[in-house]
Amino acid sequence: MTPLLAPPPGAAFLRDLEWEGRGSLILANPEWARRWPQATGPLPSLLPDLAGHVWLATSGSTSADPSHVTWVALAKTAILASAAAVNAHLESTAADTWAHALPLFHAGGLGILARARLSGARVIAAVEGRWDAWRFRERLVEERCTLTALVPSQVHDLVTARFHPPPSLRAVIVGGARLDPELHREARGLGWPCLPSYGLTETASQVATATLGSLSSRSYPVVLPLLAHAAARAGSDGRLELRAASLLTCYAEATEDGARVWDPKHEGWFATDDLGVVYAEGIEVLGRASDSVKVLGELVPLSRVEAQARTWASEEPMLRGLNVDLAVVAPPHPRLGHELVLVVAHPDPDVLRRLDLDALRESLLRSSRDTLLPFERVLRVITAARIPRTALGKCRRQLLSREVGLEA
């Protein structure tokens, strides 16, 4: 099996991957080889050498020591099945040019190469080294790009800079985490053709995506149509279950004795960690089950509370112009079960010291009175220097809770 790789996108890598071949490889964060050589070195011999497969780390584990992460085996045929469905949904052809701005060690970044392999579309590298919103926008203009895929944090940077897209750009798939409705509204106001999507590493990228027709309106597409290769149902616990031609083959974890390998599917269905509702026209994703907590016996999705907090922060005079980052955490509470705490982050301690946290809490409570139920409201506002996030911008809530002293 080919060892750890994460090269830049390009024709050479497309040839090396041999989409129809029986060879397999591991794609991982290139930082791992530098930080944990003792853990990355043995991986090619520990993970099963499945013919015609690609191994990716689950999206929530990309910042962790690779000896303690869960690996996902995706058949090349599964990745190509996802690519074909996405191409059909976007009406993508050889006339398109993809602006590649995602890591290749994530399903979304790898998926772009597979889509181009099938459609004949061109792929250009839109990120060189670290993400730079200005340079990304320049690459879109220079190469007359028509399609791209981004995570919400990248959309946020484009909106904050007040950049407008070039006329050539016809669709931006946004995945990796939920696109906040307020951020969607601002991005659409600037002209960015954002299509919120839902997918997982285990499904080789998206399985549900807003339609091109949704771009005729600036309304947030709450219900996302399923792509042609996927089906969904809600389990008895409210979690979304998926069946798709792009589903993983198995999981694997390195152990002291070698590797533990298992198939999480049951009768062809994969139970996700996401709560959702399935309609005839698509799915509504309510948030991660593991990202939800019980407050006074009621289930509260933290992403819902956080979305309301972001809407409030965009209008709060005390925070205007400060470019703060936000996250909601929920440490255990002896009476409530969990206490909802808003963390306001900024790297400058002087900025944080000037904030009146009691006033911010009262302002947030007033703002949420008509949008959140009493048990969903934030009870405390605290500050931090940063919000720890994964490479795709997802908040690492447990780590944040430890860093701000709310949990041991």
Report the strand count: 23
Poorly predicted parts: none
In CATH, the topology of the largest domain is named Rossmann fold
**Mean of all residue-level pLDDT scores:** 89
Largest sheet: 6 strands, mixed
Describe this structure in words.
The protein has 408 residues and is α/β, with parallel strands linked by helices. The chain has two domains: 2-288, 3-Layer(aba) Sandwich (Rossmann fold); 296-403, GMP Synthetase, Chain A, domain 3 (2-Layer Sandwich). It has 13 helices and 23 strands. The protein has helices spanning 11-17, 31-35, 37-40, 43-46, 76-90, 107-119, 133-143, 152-160, 181-189, 302-313, 349-353, 357-368, 397-403; strands at 2-5, 25-27, 53-57, 70-75, 97-100, 122-125, 147-150, 171-174, 194-200, 205-209, 230-234, 239-244, 250-255, 258-262, 270-279, 282-288, 292-295, 298-301, 325-329, 332-333, 337-338, 341-345, 380-384. A six-stranded mixed sheet has the order 1-2-3-4-13-14. The protein has a six-stranded mixed sheet with strand order 6-5-7-8-9-10, with helices on both faces. Strands 11-12-15-16 form a four-stranded antiparallel sheet. Strand 1 (2-5), helix 1 (11-17) and strand 2 (25-27) form a beta-alpha-beta unit. The longest helix is centred in the first third of the chain and has 15 residues, at 76-90. The radius of gyration is 21 Å and the shape is globular. The model has no long low-confidence stretch (mean pLDDT 89).
